């Protein structure tokens, strides 16, 4: 049985591992942590990702843990609701015409549980990939000197990927001036704000934000200056939340985290018998929920290509996934960022009018949603 190595047990590495296991490969996942990460970063699953996870046999369990979100909203801080887009218009394009709101930390245990049912498949916790040698196959050495050998290595070890560094691939792009502050709150925003969807992009030239519902919390994402001390930002979080809605008391904040945000793409997604996937290959801002989703798409594409045994098909998958990262994921996520924070009043008004017109026209809604739901990144769509 051929063995494939996967670095990293995040959503992307474990999807790759399960997709390969289902195709009959033995798989070893090398994970630096002592357990799966509990941090809840990504929370939105788009329709094509739901299709892929369903094909891998984990869709039902993911749905049991998530919230269906058939609509999402564009709002303006001052004007309230601008447009509500309904994914039901994608009913002929996907068997899942909605977003599923569910933290990535709920997906990874499901994927691992399924992976471990396959003979020859396992995970090594506490295995920090330190060295990668290509010797016909690939030999990976951990920081504490353990080695594993396989035919291929999928590097899904996150934005600071050791796999990427070990193969000498550079990670070109930009870092945004702001950091993003994400607060998970124990409040019911539906009691406070009218016309809320589970995902709401809120435009404002000064204090734009995103309001997202997960099964356990509402989350508020706020931009934060680059250089201010973290403590200062956590201190003023309360007053910023009361700027979203003032209930006459402090909001109950369950936890908050600060993220520096980059737009970067690796110069190559393949080096010999090493493939890069997910955040190891590309990172982008979280606006639009594209990072984990596109990483899962990488994982599924690589598993299918490796299963062909055709070197040209594996090159094609790596090249295609890099093209999609550049042409689609980077461009849509950056456009989302620019629009949320636009300051020019005429440009803002034109954009908001454009969104109202799209929401009022099912054909234009479908066209827009095919792109934001990532369907258009994966396949030609009929008119
Ligand atoms: C606030 C926020 C919100 C987001 N929301 C969304 C969203 O709604 N939708 C979306 O699609 N994306 C979203 N993202 C992005 C998403 O979280 C990432 O794209 C996703 O986690 C990438 O998955 P991954 O498996 O590639 O990497 P990771 O989740 O980072 O997993 C990498 C794994 O590799 C391990 N590892 C690291 N180094 C090594 C090593 N040397 N050896 C072995 N193991 C190693 C780590 O411990 C980890 O388990 C968001 C991000 C943030 C910060």
From TrEMBL:
Entry's EC annotation: 1.14.13.127
UniProt-listed InterPro entries: FAD-bd (IPR002938), FAD/NAD-bd_sf (IPR036188), PheA/TfdB_FAD_monoxygenase (IPR050631)
MF GO annotations: 3-(3-hydroxyphenyl)propionate hydroxylase activity; FAD binding
Keywords carried by this UniProt record: Oxidoreductase
A UniProt-annotated Pfam family: FAD_binding_3
UniProt name for this protein: 3-(3-hydroxy-phenyl)propionate hydroxylase
Residues annotated as domain FAD-binding: 4-308
SUPFAM superfamilies: FAD/NAD(P)-binding domain (SSF51905)
């Amino acid at each position: 049985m051929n063995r494939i190595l996967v670095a990293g047990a995040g959503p992307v590495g474990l999807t790759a591992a399960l997709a390969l296991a289902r195709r009959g490969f033995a798989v070893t996942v090398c994970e630096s942590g002592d357990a799966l990460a509990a941090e809840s970063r990504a929370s939105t699953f788009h329709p094509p990702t739901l299709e892929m996870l369903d094909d891998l046999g984990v869709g039902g369990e993911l749905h049991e843990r998530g919230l269906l979100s058939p609509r999402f909203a564009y709002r303006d801080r001052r004007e309230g609701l601008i447009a509500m887009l309904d994914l039901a218009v994608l009913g002929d394009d996907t068997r899942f015409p909605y977003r599923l709101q569910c933290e990535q930390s709920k997906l990874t245990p499901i994927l691992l549980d399924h992976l471990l049912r396959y003979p020859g498949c396992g995970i090594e916790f506490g295995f920090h990939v330190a060295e990668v040698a290509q010797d016909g196959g690939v030999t990976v050495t951990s920081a504490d000197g353990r080695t594993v050998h396989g035919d291929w290595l999928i590097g899904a070890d996150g934005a600071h990927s050791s796999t990427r560094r070990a193969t000498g691939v550079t990670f070109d792009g930009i870092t945004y001036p702001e950091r993003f502050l994400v607060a998970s709150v124990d409040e019911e925003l539906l009691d406070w704000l009218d016309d809320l969807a589970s995902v709401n992009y809120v435009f404002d030239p000064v204090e734009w934000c995103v309001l997202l519902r997960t099964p356990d919390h509402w989350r508020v994402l706020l931009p934060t200056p680059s250089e201010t001390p973290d403590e200062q930002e956590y201190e003023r979080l309360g007053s910023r939340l009361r700027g979203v809605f003032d209930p006459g008391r402090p909001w109950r904040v369950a936890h908050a985290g600060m993220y520096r945000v980059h737009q970067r793409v690796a110069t190559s997604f393949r080096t010999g018998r090493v493939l890069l996937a997910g955040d190891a290959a590309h990172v982008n801002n979280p606006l639009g929920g594209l990072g984990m989703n596109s990483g899962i798409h990488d994982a599924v594409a690589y598993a299918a290509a490796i299963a062909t045994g055709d070197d040209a098909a594996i090159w094609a998958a790596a090249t295609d996934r890099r093209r999609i990262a550049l042409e689609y994921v980077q461009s849509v996520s950056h456009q989302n960022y620019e629009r949320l924070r636009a300051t020019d009043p005429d440009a803002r008004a034109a954009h908001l009018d454009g969104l109202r017109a799209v929401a009022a026209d099912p054909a234009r809604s479908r066209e827009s949603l095919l792109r934001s739901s990532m369907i258009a990144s994966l396949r030609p769509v009929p008119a």
